[in-house]
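Late entry, evening session. Most of the bench is empty. Finally got around to the prediction I had been postponing all week. Sequence below, unchanged from the version circulated by S.P.
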Amino acid sequence: MDVKQLKFLLRLISKPDYQASITELKPTSGTRASERDKICRELRALNLVEAPEEVTKLKIEPAGKALLEADAAELPLSKDELKALKASAKGTINPSDTRIPTDTRQSVIQALVERGLISALKTQLKEVRLTERGKEFLLYEYNPSGPGNTNLTQDLLAIFLNFFRQQMKKPQSSAVRTEPSLPAFADKPSDEQILQAIAELDRTLGTDNYLPIFHLRSKLQPPLFREELDEALYRLEKNDQIQLSTLQEVSSYTPEQVQAGIPQDIGGPLFFIIVN
């Protein structure tokens, strides 16, 4: 592992839940976006990070054109898949040109790419997450060797030491509840499944319809990224299915649990989930 790859990982482990937007992870201030993305893909190939890519340019494939010429009543496509296929038949397009809702757009496009009906001409890294393999590598396997200087700043060294301590320390308070053993999601859950998970966690933990968000993150991240879960909670709140409440007394929770809340520009983080 070279120094820039190491610095990329150190930037990542400084973020809450060890995940962040790719734009936050430049190894140095002078690192170009293209070089940053190359480093990320190299680390992904080593299974040290998880970094899905969003399609930003697409076009229809011959198989997709042939499918559009078939009887519309017999097409093995959902309404949104058909919409994306018809839009891409007009030429190279952006995902927004499909007119598919934002929250499902990428999953629809990825499904068509996997079936060979459209091709992704351009993709973009968005979110990056440290894998369990990445944690193991940093804790037990990484061993600098050879001549040269790693040029780590004190800030970067502090990031690693804090990461090491967080991984090694035992629970500090018996008041911290043990996470319930609930079925994990193999795929990204829908908003309705997230709402059900909130209810199940509240019932199991006995939080009286005042569920701290860190419990939900433990269950749903992964498969969701932090930003995706935040957006889902905002949608549920907008649909009047839940309320999000701020934390007033932080002394009852660890710093990591407080950081799991949703930061606000003014006041404390959104910390509790209340089902309407």
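Two things to note before I forget:
The radius of gyration is 22 Å.
Residues 3-52+127-168 form one domain.
Will write this up properly tomorrow.
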